[in-house]
Design brief:
Length: 256
């Protein structure tokens, strides 16, 4: 049942903090200095340029339309599947594949950020995630056969890798600056945007599921993250799609 999915997801996630503990990043401590008011510091950070502002907006779009699927996997699966012996299996399958898909994030991040343009890479990750959500909604409109679970597993792996890879690219955008204090400010802005938009996104998904059904919630999430990724990605995303093998571009501090 769902307990098996929670157990599997927990086991798969255990290796992530272990890797961090083993490979400790060598980050210098920021020097103490004069404290600025929080709002003034945020305005100064957002004034770095349109690239970082687009990253911030992409972060908010991800929290609104994409991330809630992870938290609502169990009620969504129970709503989409008919009340049969496979209903609980669908919920477990989603949670397990979401966690397993994160192991595909590193190669995805290297490919998405290969030219150093993190705006295009993050937007492309959001675009691909939106397509995955739309496919998930399409395959969930059916008879509820066991074949549907196979598609859920495949799309769950894609969602796990793309959503986690997109978050990695968003975090890597702070590497554009060598000043640790400036990096901390940029990361603080990203954390704040996520903390504000994530509860709104979860409420919107839950309300849509209760009012129009799970398929509508997934479809709206897919359309939202796809459209905003295309708009915010702008010319950089269009160039990436038009020239998928391009390896030189705007600098952005691609993650290792």
């Amino acid at each position: 049942g769902p307990a098996f999915g929670l157990l599997g997801a927990g086991i798969l996630l255990l290796s992530l903090p272990l890797v961090v503990l083993i490979e400790r990043p060598d980050v210098p401590n920021p020097k103490p200095g004069r404290r600025e008011p929080a709002l003034a510091a945020m305005r100064a950070t957002l004034a770095h340029g349109p690239r970082f502002r687009r990253i911030v907006l992409l972060s908010g779009a991800t929290a609104l339309f994409l991330t809630p699927l992870s938290a609502l996997a169990v009620p969504l699966a129970l709503q989409l599947r008919p009340p049969d012996e496979w209903q609980a299996t669908g919920a477990s399958l989603l949670m397990a594949t979401f966690a397993l898909g994160r192991y595909f994030a590193p190669p995805l991040v290297r490919r998405l950020a290969r030219d150093g343009d993190l705006v295009a890479g993050t937007a492309l990750a959001g675009l691909a995630s939106g397509i995955v959500l739309l496919a998930f909604a399409a395959f969930s409109v059916g008879t509820g056969s066991t074949r549907e679970l196979l598609w859920w597993a495949i799309l769950g792996l894609g969602y796990g890798g793309l959503s986690y890879g997109g978050k990695s690219l968003i975090t890597a955008s702070t590497d554009e600056h060598d000043d640790p204090e400036e990096k901390a400010r940029m990361q603080g802005v990203l954390v704040l945007i996520g903390a504000v938009t994530a509860p709104i996104g979860a409420w919107l998904w839950g309300w849509t599921m209760d009012t129009y059904g799970g398929v509508a919630a997934v479809a709206i999430g897919g359309v939202g993250v796809t459209v905003l990724s295309i708009i915010l990605g702008g010319e950089a995303l269009r160039l990436r799609i038009a020239h998928p093998l391009r390896r030189t571009g705007a600098g952005g501090g691609a993650p290792a």
